[in-house]
């Protein structure tokens, strides 16, 4: 296991810590959970940077990175929705998108020749915009600003989904033609 993969695993281990803070009875629980989330975001940036810069890209890391992203996204969506910090439709839309990507990734891996679609700029922008929107909630920015950031994040997520769908269809079509 290399450093980049270790950082990716640390993001998965930060999820229960985030949830412990979020659901605790501490007075500033949302802020503490937000700090853990920011730490997770920093490790997300670092793991990709280190993997590319020091040629540590592995199949394990390529598969684990989106898993860490999806688990973090689900944890935040469910926790924020459970306390009414985001509307349920955001959980439903982004949750369905993430589930579709998980199912599609499984299909691609098992029936598409063990292929994994690596993270790309569309997914990275979507993830970054999600962090920004969630941090705006944590910082209690104006409702209008938070709503704008949430709509931007959802838009980027839907564009990223369409991009991954196009790649998925191309890989599956090429496999069938081979």
From TrEMBL:
GO terms for biological process: glycerophospholipid biosynthetic process. InterPro entries: CDP-alcohol_PTase-I (IPR050324), CDP-OH_P_trans (IPR000462), CDP-OH_PTrfase_TM_dom (IPR043130), CDP_ALCOHOL_P_TRANSF_CS (IPR048254), Phosphatidylglycerol_P_synth (IPR004570). It catalyses: a CDP-1,2-diacyl-sn-glycerol + sn-glycerol 3-phosphate = a 1,2-diacyl-sn-glycero-3-phospho-(1'-sn-glycero-3'-phosphate) + CMP + H(+). Pfam families: CDP-OH_P_transf (PF01066). It comes from the Bacteria. Pathway: Phospholipid metabolism; phosphatidylglycerol biosynthesis; phosphatidylglycerol from CDP-diacylglycerol: step 1/2. The keyword Transmembrane applies. It is found in: Membrane. GO terms for molecular function: CDP-diacylglycerol-glycerol-3-phosphate 3-phosphatidyltransferase activity. One of its GO terms (cellular component) is membrane. It is an enzyme of class 2 (transferase). The chain crosses the membrane at residues 6-23, 30-51, 89-110, 122-142, 148-168. Its main location: membrane. Its EC number is 2.7.8.5. Belongs to the CDP-alcohol phosphatidyltransferase class-I family. PANTHER family: CDP-DIACYLGLYCEROL--GLYCEROL-3-PHOSPHATE 3-PHOSPHATIDYLTRANSFERASE 1, CHLOROPLASTIC, CDP-DIACYLGLYCEROL--GLYCEROL-3-PHOSPHATE 3-PHOSPHATIDYLTRANSFERASE-RELATED. This protein catalyzes the committed step to the synthesis of the acidic phospholipids. This is CDP-diacylglycerol--glycerol-3-phosphate 3-phosphatidyltransferase.
């Amino acid at each position: 296991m290399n450093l980049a993969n270790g950082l990716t695993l640390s993001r998965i281990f930060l999820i229960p810590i985030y949830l412990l803070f979020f659901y605790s009875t501490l007075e500033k629980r949302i802020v503490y959970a937000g700090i853990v989330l920011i730490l997770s975001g920093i490790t997300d940036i670092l793991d990709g940077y280190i993997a590319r810069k020091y040629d540590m890209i592995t199949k394990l890391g390529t598969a684990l990175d989106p898993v860490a992203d999806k688990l973090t996204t689900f944890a935040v969506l469910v926790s924020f929705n459970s306390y009414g910090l985001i509307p349920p439709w955001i959980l439903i839309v982004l949750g369905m998108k993430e589930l579709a990507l998980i199912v599609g990734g499984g299909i691609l891996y098992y029936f598409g020749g063990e292929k994994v679609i690596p993270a790309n700029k569309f997914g990275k922008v979507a993830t970054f915009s999600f962090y920004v929107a969630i941090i705006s909630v944590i910082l209690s920015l104006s409702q209008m600003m938070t709503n704008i950031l949430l709509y931007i994040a959802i838009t980027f997520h839907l564009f990223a989904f369409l991009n991954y769908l196009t790649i998925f269809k191309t890989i599956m079509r090429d496999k069938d033609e081979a």
